[in-house]
Amino acid sequence: MSKHRSKRYQKAAALVEEGKTYGLEEAVGTVKKFPAPKFDPTVTVSFHLGVDPRKSDQMVRGSVSLPHGTGKNVRVAVFAAGAAAEAATAAGAEHVGFEDLIKKVQEGFTDFDVAIATPEAMTEVRKIARVLGPRGLMPNPKTGTVTDDTAKAVNEVKAGRIDFKLDKNGNVAGSIGRASFNEAALIENAQAFIDSVKRAKPASAKGNYIRSVTVAAAMCPGVPLESSLFATN
C-alpha cells in the first residue's frame, strides 16, 4: 500500500481481505466499520462493464429511484415556461426559467445537480449542450429529464432518483446514500441500483456484461462484491 495513503485509509484497507469478494450485507457492514471522518461520506456503488463505450449500440444509461434516497440535497434546474414552469417551482425546483435561464447557463452558471426540460424547451436547451453535456447535466428522455410533467420529475429527483451513464472507460457509478444510513437502507439502495444496471444491458452486449462491482465510502477503499450478485444471463 502506498505510504502516501492517510492513516484512516490504511485502517480501512486493513478491514478488506485481499482477494476476497463479499456478499452485499457483509460488504455494507465492512464499509460501516471504516474509521469515520469528520464529514458524512457518500457511499458509492461502482461497476466495470464488459461493453465497448465507443459503440453507440453498447451505451448503458438509465435511472433508478432509490427506496431510501441518497441523503443529498439535490439542486434542480428546470427549463420550462408557463404551467410547466409553475409546476416545477411548486415542486421545489431551485432554478426555473427558459430564455433567461439558458442565457445564465451560457454565461457560466451551472450551480445545480440535475437539469430537467420540457420537450418544447429542448430546441433552445440544445444550444447549451456544450456547457451541460461535459458535466453530465444534459436533459435526456431516457432518464426522464425531458418531460411535460415537470413536477413529477422534480419530485422523483429530490426523493432519491439517480441517473447513471457509461463513461469512456466502461464504468458506471452512482451514490446509494451516506455512511450514516443504517445497513438495511444501504443494502436495499445498493440492490435497487444493481438490478437497474442489470436491466440496462444492451442487446448487442456479448460475453460477461458486468465484470466487477465494488461498494466504497468516499476516500476509502472499495469492497468487491461476489459475482453471483450481479451475474446476468
List keywords for this structure.
alpha/beta, globular, 233 residues, ribosomal protein, 30% helix, three-stranded parallel sheet
Characterise this structure:
The chain has 233 residues and is of the alpha/beta class. Helix content is 30%, strand content 20%. It has eight helices and nine strands. Strands 7-1-8-9 form a four-stranded antiparallel β-sheet, covered by helices on one side. The longest helix has 17 residues, at 183-199. The two termini are 36 Å apart.
Summarize the helices and strands and which ones pair or pack:
Elements (H helix, E strand, L loop, with lengths): L6 H7 L10 H10 L8 E8 L11 E5 L10 E4 L2 H10 L3 E3 L1 H8 L7 E4 L4 H4 L3 H4 L17 H10 L1 E5 L5 E8 L4 H17 L10 E8 L5 E2 L9
Parallel strand pairs: 3-4, 3-5
Antiparallel strand pairs: 1-7, 1-8, 2-6, 8-9
Summarize the structure.
Binds directly to 23S rRNA. The L1 stalk is quite mobile in the ribosome, and is involved in E site tRNA release. Protein L1 is also a translational repressor protein, it controls the translation of the L11 operon by binding to its mRNA. This protein is an alpha/beta fold and 233 residues long.
